[in-house]
Amino acid sequence: AQSVTQLDSQVPVFEEAPVELRCNYSSSVSVYLFWYVQYPNQGLQLLLKYLSGSTLVKGINGFEAEFNKSQTSFHLRKPSVHISDTAEYFCAVSDLKRGSARQLTFGSGTQLTVLP
Amino acid sequence: DGGITQSPKYLFRKEGQNVTLSCEQNLNHDAMYWYRQDPGQGLRLIYYSQIVNDFQKGDIAEGYSVSREKKESFPLTVTSAQKNPTAFYLCASRAPGGRNEQFFGPGTRLTVL
Questions:
Q1: What is the DSSP string of B7-36?
Q2: Is a pLDDT exceeding 80 seen at residue B100?
Q3: Which of B39, B30, B10 is nearest to B74 (CA)?
Q4: Which residue of A25, A108, B63, B98 has the lowest C-beta tally within 10 Å?
Q5: Which of A94, A102, A110 to substitute to test the interface with B, most B CBs within 10 Å?
């Protein structure tokens, strides 16, 4: 079984400042890692994913994340945020076991609010 | 355009009534999922289906039922046995092969009056 912890439920930040949203996971097997963004009353949109290879992953809208296996973390970063980045962000994991249903286990979400 | 559609966007139900939420995809994906979202709790898996005519319970299946008669469709029924059905419901499908990413519909907000 896997679990995901998003350490901050709310992150306020001023426009053009950098931001980091933290995510730690727990799993007894190797995992895939994802970050999704959700705007109010909408579905989830994939920001980026780590499947294998380079531990620094670049996604859409200028976001990036770094996979750290020793610390079991997958923190999301953006060097300069915009008002339009205000949304809820979810970290998720999926196991790599052969034959598994590959369902996603989600963290509880981080509300990013960008202030003018 | 390929994607996932959910209907209706908003749904109101009286206590004791069953209600069915629609989910349709034209992405030709085999695997489909239903999640429930409550404030501050992230998304929790209700049911999933890896292939037509097969589905499995997720973490919170009690009070829900599904069917998968066609590849494109995975409707969710919220029964009167579900104690607290007011929530935002999201349907997803998974890309095949190694990509493993899930694509989400726009969601249905169910309110029990």
A1: E-SEEEE-TT--EEEEEEE-S--SEEEEEE
A2: no
A3: B30
A4: B98
A5: A102
Enumerate residues 6+ apart whose C-beta is below 8 A from B51: B30, B31, B68
For chain B positions 13-72, those within 8 Å of chain A (CB to CB) are: 31, 33, 35, 40-45, 48, 50, 56, 58
The type of residue at A25 is: Y
Task: Report which secondary-structure segment, H or E, holds A19.
Answer: strand A19-21
Q: Is B94 on the interface with A (CB under 8 A)?
A: yes
> In chain A, which residues have their Cβ closer than 8 Å to the Cβ of B50?
101
pLDDT tens-digit series, residues B3-25 = 999 999 999 999 889 999 999 99
Alpha-helix residue ranges (DSSP H) falling in chain A: none
Collapse the DSSP code of A85 into the 3-class scheme (helix H, G, I; strand E, B; otherwise coil) and give the result.
helix
B102 alpha carbon, distance to own chain's centre? 13
Residues whose CB falls within 8 Å of the CB of residue A45, separated by 6 or more in sequence, listed in order: A36, A37, A38, A39, B104
Q: Does B97 touch chain A (CB under 8 A)?
A: no
Which residues of chain B lie closer than 8 angstroms to A36, CB-CB?
104
What is the pLDDT, as a whole number, of residue B98? 66
Q: Shortest CA distance to B55 belongs to which of B36, B81, B41, B75?
A: B75
Locus of tokens 């209907």: B7
